[in-house]
Amino acid sequence: MHDPLLDTVVAGKYRVLRKIGEGGMAFIYEVQHVKLLRSFALKGLLPEWAQNPEAAQRFEREAELLGSLRHPNVIDINDWVYLNDGTPCMVLEFLHGATLQTRLQRGPLPFEAIARLADHTCSALALAHRNGITHRDVKPENIFISIDDSGDDRVKLLDFGVSKLRGVGRLSGVYRMLGTPSYMSPEQAAGNNDAVGPSSDCWAMGAILYEMATRQVAFKGIDIQQTLMLILEGRPPPIASVRPDTPPDFVDLIDRCLSHDPERRIQTIEDLRFRLRNALPAPGRTPLLQPKRPTPPVGLPVVPQPGGGSSLGPRSPSAIGAPVAMVVAPPTDKRRWVILVVAIVLATLGNLAIALAI
């Protein structure tokens, strides 16, 4: 079926190249600026939501929130445009890489990688909280591991569509329960939106830390109702029983994040970040998706391997797997002696030729 948006120009400057995907309320396309020839992600409301005043209001609020959060770990918004039919759209930075959800399909993360990924995410959340914004939907699908053209990776926090802004009236209707069930805090699971605040994001981070270490979802029932009951009354299996090498301070950190006791649960993302740095090894530069690409010797071919990783953009060498470079082996001791003898002989012959010439 032909997509009428493909190859059209939005707002006179963004040519639509391809559809990346769509979720429950929005679609995303790759677009290219007709003058700058630079790719962006175009995110707009689906037709069934574009005419819903509450959905449109929340979409506009998301754009405003992103515009107010200038942070290296928050996806950047570049423009606000409308399709010909009046559908509102955000123009976002174009990311290469994969979501944390995709990365977890390969298995648990090393503790050093957990430390760096969580630190990046907490840094973004700390800025949001300082601006009175509770994300309310922190989950692996909304944590994107972005890889730039040099191969360096950085976490980007996505989707502030259900965020709660302090001091702003609540939106009702279809948004009575906000968030993704497995990562909801008890107050969200109980529908008590007035109690939702920064500690709700701390709970979600605790569930994500558990999942990064074990590859098991902390709260997952056979249906939504059972999942919500597990959040309200249950506990996940002890992390040390799933991953025995877990540092004790990290076990305690997750227990405090997922505590039903408000007095015991970690209340601020700054406190969580501080405790995380004391609980795990220093983040370092362990790649979050795959080993960094080796620098190929000059003149030798690089052969890319097939690999995994979804992307918010076209698949690039950094997003599809680490290439394998042909590397020249260092000479053995025997070869070194041969090279040395040849060099001496050549030098002697050269001196002899000069002497004869004189």
Account of the protein in words:
The structure is a single chain. This protein has 358 residues and is of the alpha+beta class. It has 2 domains: 9-93, 2-Layer Sandwich (Phosphorylase Kinase, domain 1), CATH 3.30.200; 97-279, Transferase(Phosphotransferase), domain 1 (Orthogonal Bundle), CATH 1.10.510. It has helices at residues 47-50, 53-68, 100-104, 111-130, 186-189, 198-214, 224-233, 239-242, 248-257, 269-279, 317-320, 333-357; strands at residues 9-10, 14-22, 26-33, 39-45, 77-82, 88-93, 97-99, 133-134, 143-147, 153-157, 164-165, 302-303, 324-325. The strands form 4 sheets. The protein has a 6-stranded antiparallel beta sheet. It has a 3-stranded antiparallel beta sheet with strand order 7-9-10. The chain has a two-stranded antiparallel ribbon with strand order 8-11. Strand 2 and strand 3 (26-33) form a beta hairpin. It starts with 8 loop residues before the first strand and ends with a helix. Mean pLDDT is 80; it is low at 167-177, 291-311, 313-334 and 352-358.
